[in-house]
Amino acid sequence: MAQIIDGKAVSAAIKEELKGKAAQLKQEGIQICLAVIQVGDDPASSVYVGNKKKACAYIGIDSLSYELPEETTQDELINLIEELNGKEEVSGILVQLPLPAHIDEDKIIRAIDPGKDVDGFHPQSVGALCIGQPRFVSCTPAGIIQLLKRSGIEIAGKECVVVGRSNIVGKPMALLLLRENGTVTIAHSKTKNLQEVTKRADILIVAVGRPKMITREYVKEGAVVIDVGIHRNENNKLCGDVDYDDVAPICSAITPVPGGVGPMTIAMLMHNCVEALTKR
């Protein structure tokens, strides 16, 4: 039977560690503060922002919340970011994505001070990851590395396949696996013979954005399968990019949806907030 990799348990352990670090910093007179900006009232974004505020409160991080109307202009948003960049008491800045269509996400990401870029999306953060220098790392890929390590899964020397090449998950995931001495292949929508490629994987990480796309035909017996996807199926139940019921019987370990990768993203955001004071 496959080991179920419990993201809730791992994220809870990380949050407890961070709570201790935040309390120690507070005793030294250092208070961490995260500024969260949301433009518009997208329901999913509102849920994510609420979860981030709850995590901050639990760990002992101050949070500033900016809920801006949908019609906020790009210049108004950049002006707010620049104001927060200049505030010494603000250690991290997060702009909730996606943004309304009239705002250029790339320009907004670039406006954030790289020393406060707790999402790890700024080109300087990505560039540092590429050349192995310390900077913020995207929260979901960083969380997956923690899931693997804390579940006793060795990465070094393993054949790792990442399905998906987004800037937020696929590309940084591949770089982090390389950093851990994995042998990495990135597959995507244009990959020929995808099943042959994924069946080589000792560790298969799926971030393709298509519900239940990965069935047992894509998976090598005994592989570790990490499912980054989250969707609602025809019965309005949450599911991932992996057909869990089909794949779990042949895996050595697998993440469920929900309760796998999802909780790790916020845990690693909190980690980046605590680390922010050392990244200036």
Give an overview in words.
There is one protein chain. The protein is of the alpha/beta class. Helix content is 39%, strand content 16%. The chain contains 10 helices and 11 strands. The protein has helices spanning 7-27, 43-59, 74-85, 105-111, 123-130, 139-150, 170-179, 194-198, 244-247, 262-275, and strands at residues 3-4, 33-39, 62-68, 92-95, 159-163, 183-187, 203-206, 224-227, 231-232, 238-239, 253-254. The strands form 3 sheets. It has a 6-stranded parallel sheet with strand order 1-11-8-7-5-6. Strands 3-2-4 form a 3-stranded parallel sheet, with helices on both faces. Helix 2 packs across helix 10, helix 6 (139-150) packs across helix 7 (170-179) and helix 6 (139-150) packs across helix 10 (262-275). The longest helix is centred in the first third of the chain and has 21 residues, at 7-27. The model has no long low-confidence stretch (mean pLDDT 94).
Order of helices and strands: EHEHEHEHHHEHEHEEEEHEH
Q: How far apart lie the N and C ends?
A: 46 Å
Give the radius of gyration. 19 Å
Helix content: 25-40%
| Morphology | globular
Mean pLDDT value: 94
Identify low-pLDDT runs. Answer: none
Q: What structural category do the secondary elements indicate?
A: alpha/beta
Tell me which CATH architecture of the largest domain applies here: 3-Layer(aba) Sandwich
What is the quaternary state of this protein? Answer: single chain
Secondary structure tally: strands: 11
Number of domains: 2
Give the neighbour order of strands across the main sheet. 1-11-8-7-5-6
CATH superfamily of the largest domain, please?
NAD(P)-binding Rossmann-like Domain
CATH class of the largest domain: Alpha Beta
Count of helix runs: 10
Please report which band the strand proportion falls in: under 5%, 5-15%, 15-25%, 25-35%, 35-45% or over 45%: 15-25%
CATH topology of the largest domain: Rossmann fold
Largest sheet geometry: 6 strands, parallel
